[in-house]
Design a protein that fits this description.
The structure holds two protein chains of two kinds.
Chain A (H helix, E strand, L loop, with lengths): L5 E7 L5 H10 L4 E5 L5 H6 L1 H18 L15 H25 L3 E4 L2 E7 L2 E6 L4 E9 L3 E3 L12 E2 L1 H4 L8 E5 L3 H12 L3 E5 L11 H13 L3 E3 L2 E8 L7 E7 L2 E7 L1 E4 L3 E3 L6 H4 L3 E2 L2 E2 L12 E3 L10 H15 L15 E3 L4 E6 L2 H6 L4 E7 L4 H6 L5 E7 L5 E8 L2 H13 L4 H6 L9 H10 L7
Parallel strand pairs in A: 1-2, 1-6, 2-3, 6-19, 8-15, 9-10, 9-15, 10-11
Antiparallel strand pairs in A: 4-5, 5-6, 7-16, 12-13, 13-14, 17-18, 20-21, 21-24, 22-23, 23-24
Helix pairs in contact in A: 1-9, 3-4, 3-6
Chain B lengths: L1 E4 L9 E7 L6 E2 L4 E6 L4 E5 L4 E6 L8 E2 L3 E6 L15 H6 L18 E2 L23 E2 L11 H10 L17 H5 L11 H7 L13 H16 L2 E9 L1 H12 L9 H15 L5 E3 L4 E3 L5 E3 L1 E3 L2 E3 L2 E2 L7 H17 L12 E5 L18 E5 L3 E7 L2 E15 L5 H16 L7
Parallel strand pairs in B: 14-18, 18-19
Antiparallel strand pairs in B: 1-8, 2-4, 2-7, 3-6, 4-5, 6-8, 9-10, 11-21, 12-13, 14-17, 15-16, 19-21, 20-21
Classes of the chains: A alpha/beta, B alpha+beta.
């Protein structure tokens, strides 16, 4: 084997975990290759985070145009060009994917457009076979193959009227009606998008509330906002069966049990958004002996699997399935491999979560219930955006910022937000938590006026009965 | 324009402490005015202005220790003249020397000790470099509060530590740059509370909570080094003698009966005169070891130990053998006063041939004293105590004292010392002999 195909590190998967790990490792002086079977940037960039944000932006513009009258703006007949909306989303993804390829070149990272399979070590190096039969080797391997949409037993997506996220973001036409199974971030973003584009949307959630990982109050407020937008929501609803027919308007019939009562609902299309499953197949993991648990690769705080020299990061290692979690794990693993680790690992409660529906939802840390279950005595602050000048000026003052403190130590245990641009606001609390600020530092910090961020300040003040504008 | 430099107040002086400024910036001074006091080896020395003018800048802060000789300490300007130094704040060279400057990449400044002050020290303009040979603020431009090591800890870690009574000094930080974070405090070994870490603290850092740090004055340093050197270099031996004071007390009574109050003599004055007489009579004791020879002094230059706050000093009654009792007495009074005021001049406490140290006023019955170099011996005087004595086979009472002579065996042999003590006993018990 030539030196050319021998690397210090091979990263399998070029998504937000893999390509970031590769760049960091290259910065630290390692010779790095990435093996990517499809497009650099992975699902996030090509079929997830980014293109859906482009779609949601289109929906937002359409919504604003439709409500322009409240700002004194008169717009005549309003319509949208379906193909252009989808094309813009694809163009945004393509632009960014090209950008990743540029980053790979800039960092002298070799990219193999292939699938990869791990073989046993020869000497110090793991042998990796690519699907074009090429052989490469590396002292260390990072697995970063991500995940794909989970399917429900007996329900097979057909790409036509039963679809998953990938087809859901490139519809050939806008359906008249839509059933969405699952009310997590993906389900609610599609619900929000399609509803704004004029589709009759029904959400079916097995749990007793939508956005089940969020704080109860946030779930309740989101549900209220969605219902107000005309979205039908069924909670504690068990999907029993889905059948399809030739009829375009009612091509999908879903049988759902709600509170013991079986109900049939029909729609033109159905989106399955019931979570994801790790891509762990055909990688040679069994042959090499990498340990899995419930379909996910088991790793330690530095991404090390049970096999020395093999790391895994991102979605394939388990929840939360978030791009920024994968990227952060990639950096930690790369630094560990390069011997530059400062011992820093990541706590799940420090990973913020964002949902870009309308209203936006963002959170970090423990929910109120989780904090109570953990035995904390709490101080909880709430501030509604209707008390925030900027939100009122934006015409978008529905929402709340909720902060949860340990009454004893003043630790910010969690922050939960719903409302305008909260996905951009949450990092303030993320930094506060990372720096281990207490309520005192957050109170002493000066927040600029007029901004939505003032609501963050007020929420902290409210937790300690010092709120000003409420 | 005149730069006042740290003066060399003795040939061996290399540094001193700027004890006190006697003028303020902007004060008009004339040549010869005392502008500052410098604390050196054993005394305060005065610094005089060499020119007329206005005090422009004090370059060294009051209380600054270890100011090197030659360091510019002040600038005197003519009326209306521009400073060549720029407006330079005083520099505390002690702190600048002992405090490490925190690295620029260190973790965020902790709330507790964040008062770093950036001093702006302007360099001297080139043309003035020759006239101002040394600029005072050579020290680091950063100044830190002298409060021991800074502890980097997150606000949450600080609060939890406080609530749990954990001493952050005992906690190893695992956060960025070793910052102490919540995890570290929560996982600190349970025994390591504030109270439990006093021993550790003493090893690790400034034990400021269990003790008080007293800066060592120049005087203290000199006492320490000289007496340590004496005990190391001079082989000490000690001779005790019980001496009856009745006659001396009677003599003092009759002398003082004829003296005005301000001229009354003390037992100590009398003992100085007695010792002076013995030193002339047994000159081997009135000697100094100088390595390849012994210097035998012609006069009894007797140093008197004077206790001060934070030290002691031994001003000298020069040629005590030549002086009258009242002259000795007056001189001692004056020297003691000066010593207590810290105003002894260097020549008033340097040298001498013999020391008397008297702790009788504290009720000490007897003690051994450390020889005060370059002397060959020191006489330690205990308290006069009325006690039973046997005279001519009968028990009676007398006022007795115990005198102890510490001798440098390189200079004084046992028999010589004993001879001196015998002479001393004789003269103290028969003070009229001092007149001979």
């Amino acid at each position: 084997m030539s030196d050319k195909s021998k690397y210090d590190l091979v990263v399998i998967g070029g998504g937000p975990g893999g390509y970031v790990a590769a760049i960091r490792a290259s910065q630290l002086g390692l010779k790095v290759a990435v093996v990517e079977r499809e497009n650099m940037g992975g699902v996030c960039l090509n079929w997830g985070c980014i293109p859906t944000k482009a779609l949601l932006r289109a929906a937002e513009v359409y919504h604003l145009a439709a409500t322009a009258d409240q700002f004194g703006i008169t717009i005549g007949q309003l319509s949208f060009d379906h193909e252009k909306v989808i094309k813009r989303s694809r163009d945004v993804a393509a632009t960014l994917s090209a950008g990743i390829n540029h980053l790979m070149k800039k960092n002298k990272i070799t990219v193999y457009a292939a699938t990869a399979k791990l073989n046993q070590k020869k000497g110090d190096d793991w042998q990796i076979t690519l699907d074009n039969s090429e052989q490469i080797s590396a002292g260390k391997v990072i697995l970063a193959t991500g995940a794909r949409a989970r399917h429900l037993p007996g329900i097979t997506p057909n790409g036509e009227n039963i679809v998953t996220y990938r087809d859901a973001m490139t519809p050939k036409t806008m359906p008249k009606s839509l059933i969405i199974i699952g009310s997590g971030a993906i389900g609610m973003e599609f619900a929000s998008f399609y509803a704004d584009m004029g589709v009759m949307v029904t959400v079916v959630e097995a749990a007793d509330r939508i956005l089940p990982v969020e704080d109860h109050e946030i779930s309740a407020m989101a549900e209220k906002a969605f219902i107000a937008r005309g979205i039908t929501i069924h909670k504690a609803a068990k999907l029993e069966h889905v059948s399809t027919s030739k009829s375009a308007a009612s091509g999908v019939k879903a049988s759902v049990t709600i509170a013991g009562k079986k109900t049939d609902m029909t729609a033109e299309r159905l989106i399955l958004a019931v979570g994801i499953m790790a891509n762990v197949e055909d990688l040679g993991l069994e042959e090499v002996g990498v340990k899995l648990d419930h379909g996910h690769v088991v790793t330690d705080g530095f991404g090390q699997t049970n096999i020395n020299g093999i790391y895994a990061i991102g979605d394939m290692t388990g929840a939360p399935w978030l791009a920024h979690k994968a990227s952060h794990e990639g950096v930690i693993a790369a630094e560990h491999i390069a011997g530059k680790s400062d011992g820093h690992t990541m706590k799940a409660t420090d990973i913020p979560g964002c949902t870009y529906c309308r209203p936006q939802i963002a959170s970090v840390g423990l929910t109120e219930q989780a904090a109570l279950d953990a035995g904390y005595e709490l101080k909880v602050g709430r501030f509604r955006f209707r008390g925030n000048g900027k939100a009122i000026a934006l015409g978008d003052d529905d929402g709340m910022i909720k902060t949860i403190f340990d009454a004893k130590t003043g630790e910010l245990l969690g922050a939960h937000m719903i409302g305008p641009e909260v996905t951009e606001l949450i990092q303030g609390y993320v930094i506060a938590r990372q720096c281990e600020a207490t309520e005192a530092e957050l109170m002493q910090a000066v927040f600029p006026h007029p901004t939505l961020s003032e609501a963050m300040h007020e929420s902290v003040l409210d937790a300690f009965d010092q709120v000003i504008h409420f | 324009m005149a730069i006042i430099n740290m003066p060399a107040l003795s040939p061996t002086m290399t540094e001193g402490k700027l004890a006190r400024w006697l003028v303020k910036e902007g004060d008009t001074v004339s040549s010869g005015d005392v502008i500052a006091e410098i604390e050196t080896d054993k005394a305060l020395m005065e610094v005089e202005a060499l020119d007329d003018g206005v005090m422009s800048s004090m370059l060294v802060a009051e209380g600054t220790e270890v100011v090197a000789v030659g360091t510019a300490i002040a600038e005197i300007l003519d009326e209306g003249e521009e400073s060549a130094l720029g407006k330079t704040p005083p520099v505390d060279t002690k702190q600048a020397k002992t405090e490490p400057v925190s690295p620029p990449d260190s973790a965020p400044v902790s709330e507790e000790k964040s008062s770093e002050t950036q001093l702006t020290t302007k360099p001297l303009p080139k043309q003035d470099m020759e006239t101002a040979p040394q600029q005072a603020p050579q020290a680091s431009p950063q100044k830190q509060e002298n409060k021991g090591d800074r502890i980097f800890a997150s606000p949450l870690a600080r609060r939890i530590a406080e609530q749990k009574g954990i001493d952050l000094l005992s906690v190893a930080g695992t956060g960025p740059h070793g910052r102490i974070i919540k995890y570290d405090v929560e996982n600190a070994s349970p025994g390591m509370t504030k109270a439990d870490t006093s021993k550790l603290r003493a090893v690790l850092a400034d034990p400021s909570e269990q003790s008080t740090l007293i800066p060592v004055s120049s005087t203290r340093k000199v006492i320490a080094s000289r007496l340590q050197q004496s005990m190391q270099d001079a082989p000490h031996f000690y001779l005790n003698m019980d001496i009856e004071l009745n006659a001396l007390l009677a003599a003092r009574k009759s002398i003082n009966g004829a003296q005005p109050d301000e001229a009354k003599v003390t037992i100590n004055d009398l003992l100085i005169k007695c010792a002076a007489a013995c030193l002339i009579k047994v000159p081997e004791v009135n000697s100094s070891w100088e390595g390849d020879h012994i210097r035998q002094w012609h006069h009894a230059d007797i140093a008197v130990a004077v206790a001060l706050d934070g030290g002691l000093v031994t001003p000298i009654v020069w040629q005590a053998d030549q002086k009258s009792l009242t002259a000795v007495s007056g001189e001692v009074k004056e020297l003691v006063q000066k010593a207590q005021d810290g105003r002894l001049k260097r020549e008033e406490f340097s040298g001498g041939s013999f020391t008397i140290s008297n702790l009788g006023m504290f009720g000490i019955s007897s003690f051994t004293a450390v020889i005060n170099p370059p002397h060959g011996a020191i006489l330690a005087i205990g308290a006069g105590r009325e006690m039973p004595v046997v005279k001519d086979g009968a028990i009676t009472t007398a006022t007795m004292m115990t005198a102890t002579l510490s001798c440098d065996h390189r200079v004084v042999d046992g028999a010589v010392g004993a001879k001196w003590m015998a002479e001393f006993k004789t003269i103290v018990e028969n003070p009229m002999l001092a007149l001979i």
